[in-house]
Amino acid sequence: MNIEHLSEKFELNNLEKQIVSYIQEHLIELKSIGIRQMAKDNYTSTSTIYKLCKKFGFDGYSDMIYHLTSTKDNHTINYHEQYRSFYQQFQSLLQDHSKRIIVFGLGFSAPIAEYMQQRLTLLGYSTMCVVHMEMFSQHFFDNTIFIVVSFSGKTPRLNEMIETAYHNHVPIISFIGNPQSPIIQLSTLPIVIEQYDSFSHDLNRPNTFFGEAIIAFETLLF
Hints:
- The protein has helices at 3-10, 14-25, 35-41, 46-55, 61-69, 79-84, 87-94, 109-122, 156-167, 183-186, 209-221; strands at 100-105, 126-128, 144-150, 172-176, 189-192.
- The protein is α/β, with parallel strands linked by helices.
- Strands 2-1-3-4-5 form a five-stranded parallel beta sheet, with helices on both faces.
- Helix 9 links the parallel strand 3 (144-150) and strand 4.
- Helix 3 (35-41) packs across helix 4 and helix 8 runs parallel beside helix 11 (209-221).
- 30% of the residues are buried.
């Protein structure tokens, strides 16, 4: 658990950083530590712990502990079946090879977007990764499809592009990790990848979103 990374992302105060450090030190026995015990050990109140849980995006203490201690790696996932329900709509959106496809991602999503762009280009689509806001003007209304890759779905620049595309009636296919992202509501075809939680941003925890985004994309291509 990268405390400094979490501290910067969620603007934690000193007490909250202390609690996160406590969680890291007691990760193995975390299931047996109640909210009152955690509050007592950190010389604070249960309401402070609860507020920290809400800051991280969890429903409450139990929800946070579950996400920190659950082992998702033990589950076998049938990716073909998991994403096949999106197949017909995905194929329908991409059936016209004359349309321009813009694929976009920031940060770690950028190489995933580039992979998708190159894959689609090899299949005969006119595809690009470079994004200019002018491409979502009314002039491009009938000739553009936007594919976006985003783990959090909360990046201001990305959200601005999505809103512009949406208001100009550009079809949007999104590969999103966060089901609470506003991008979900604006997408023509939102494809939620894996289960999102705030601690997935920790660079010291495994993040399967990017690999699974490629799996979902490949599953839907053919």
